[in-house]
Amino acid sequence: MGEVWKALDLRLEREVALKILKDADDLRRRALIGEAKLACQLNHPNIAHIYDAGEVDGLPYIAMELVEGRTLRSLVGPPMEAADLHALARQAASALWHAHQKGIVHRDIKPENLLLTEDGQLKILDFGIARRGGDDLPVGATSHHTTLVERTAPGYSQGTPAYMSPEQANGQALTGQSDQFSLGVVLYELATGTHPFLRASLVDTLYAVTRDEPRPLSEVRPDLPRTLQDAIHRLVSKRPQDRFPNLQTLWGGLTEDIPTATVRHLKPASRLRRPLVLGAGAAVLLVAGGLGGAWLLRRGERTALGEARRASTMDFTQGRRVVAVLPLEQLQPNPDQAWLSNSFADAMAFGLVRRDDLLVVDRLRVVEAMHQLGDAPGRAPRSLGALGRELKADTLILGSYQVVGGQVRMNVRVVEARSGNTQRQFQLDRPLADQLKLEDELQQRLPRELGLEGPAPAPGSQAKDPRTRELYTKAVEVLTEGNQDSIELAHNLLASAIKIEPNYAPARAEYAWTLAEFGVTKALSQGRFEEGQALLRQARQAAQEALALDPSAPNSYRALGSILLRLGDLEGASRMALQAVRLDPADHKAYDVLADVFAGLDGEENHQAARRYFEKALSLFPDDWQAHHRYGVLLQNDGDLPPALLHADRAIALRPAAEYAYVTAADALLWMGRPAEAEARLRAGLREVPNSNVLRSLLAVAAWDQGDRAEVVADVKALAGAWPPEHSSAVLLAGLGRAAAGDGPGALALFEAFRQRTLASDLAAKKHNEKRVLSVNLYFMARAAARLGAAAEAQQLVDLADRLHPGKRRVAQQDPIFR
């Protein structure tokens, strides 16, 4: 409904949250301003105060208290402890009772509008859209109810109707009892981790609000005090008269069970930075950005990050039967039909991966293992026993097919991996035109052939056109190559698949992945941050669309997790990636995302969690070059330079065209004082990726370390214009160029000016990738300053580098250049 800005009240010299309303006709604008002016009279410690409301040059505004903290949405998940729930309920009841006494009904109580400050104080936001109980909009105005049902309002949120009272859902006049119901829903959700009424569609949700009863808390949370259980159930009574006469009664009734309750576990560590969350509901991100806030990162027990950190010690694969599906052998080679080998194998894997009693080995891991044993994917393995041992599999599924006269003739075998003995075997003979029906039949039949109980889980998203499956299968195959050209080709293949079938979720999920890769490789790495963020936002939308089409697809959660990580939403990233792991514990890429989340955070416990996740990923896929590379980056930033170099070199051996693995190896060697070896790695990388500006820029650094000033000048000249002048890479090169030309003071002045500009910028608003690039380049500036004899300036640059991406101080302690 508007935009929110952090603003300064010049008269009273205080910061406020300024909500500017938009797209409102005269009638609606007058109503909103009038309602906000009513809310100005509220004065309660648990209500975010509204200071003023009015109109300037036809633009309506509401000025509110600026509050630091996080909304209760971030606490929904693991059931909340009784003491914490009790304290929140009492604070909310006290605040709403204060409003109801003045005849003001909030009308939109939900987790997003309930905020917890750093000291555990609850603040209710957005009384600016409240109005006096029983009042209704003038004739001709759009009611809250019809707006939601007809889905005509910009910014419509599926979550809001799930917190409506039955009378609100039915468009009736509202009283304070309506806020009671909404509060009860929030408390129930916090108590159980499950929403009592949210359903798959808007109509079903509204039906559940008006008719369905929630599951008794005595069954779900028997540990809650009986008084608290009864209070929540009374709040969510369908009839207003069955709820509390007023919330003062509720507040008084909650004094018996836990008299000393405080929201103790929800307080953040005071030494951590905190974001601003403004009193304006869904518009918060316009000011706060996508980062989510650093105070949240160690709160531990209530957040998705806390849950994911604890999960790093768990073994999601334990107790599962390990199954590997091999690409089928094509008996009569035909390049036009070779893609069917992977398509059939994927179809069988899709039918198994959704089961919680199996662990299905990633297809790429199967292919890599076959290569290691000298087997060719799509051909019968020479030793099933050796392949089973390499994959640590209990069961292998393999087979063959041929197309004869428009018919697909297929043979499928279920093999005991250790012995190589065939346990089950079946044949299928179907028209090639019925390929998709054949794949569906494979998904349904294979679990029975494996002796699994229960029906096969229904596929979440099925292709309807064989061409869609062909394009998707080929794109996934191309993506395994991992270079920019392959990503671009895969992107185009997936775009074509989506054009044929917009509702095919797997294609949308992988399409989102390619958009995210473009955002990093084509934009962020070149300093085009706005372009990179735009691509990542497109990727996020595509991943969300994939999830909407198939909420049970692990790759959609993993893709969205990776994208949210790059957008700086660490809470969302960890939540999505952990869900991907739960759905598919063999998804090594999801473990990579979780590892990256914690690798980017400060603190030993976070880095230990990152290491555990990297180890999990590598145990599932030892030849995952990306995991080796990023693990190397983590070790490098932690100051463990020798193992960092080993992992980077392993990534290079696995993927010679992996540009940034050369960067990691060269950085480690430079920081260990081995510039000649770093130069050798960089030149090897340039042979593989000749147009890499990043590798060429590091050549200038290596040349500077070796005293080759002519090479520095030549490299700097060759890279002129590669980055915008204000980019940290451009500043580093310009400084090295000046120093190599004999202008040391000029280089130091350039570095200091950049340091000052960086300090003056909003460091908290910078995205994770931007911080990492800045940190590395600032560290190289520090090294250059140290060689020029400017020890104090070098230390200041190291300190800023460490602030942006912690670990640089540890690196500097080992770097010979600082001795």
TrEMBL record:
The chain crosses the membrane at residues 276-297. Residues 1-258 form the Protein kinase domain. TPR repeats lie at residues 554-587. InterPro entries: Kinase-like_dom_sf, Prot_kinase_dom, Ser/Thr_kinase_AS, TPR-like_helical_dom_sf, TPR_rpt. Keywords: ATP-binding, Kinase, Membrane, Nucleotide-binding, Serine/threonine-protein kinase, TPR repeat, Transferase, Transmembrane, Transmembrane helix. One of its GO terms (molecular function) is protein serine/threonine kinase activity. The keyword GTP-binding does not apply. Residues 448-467 are annotated as: Disordered. SMART domains: S_TKc, TPR. The keyword Protein transport does not apply. This is Serine/threonine protein kinase. It comes from Geothrix rubra.
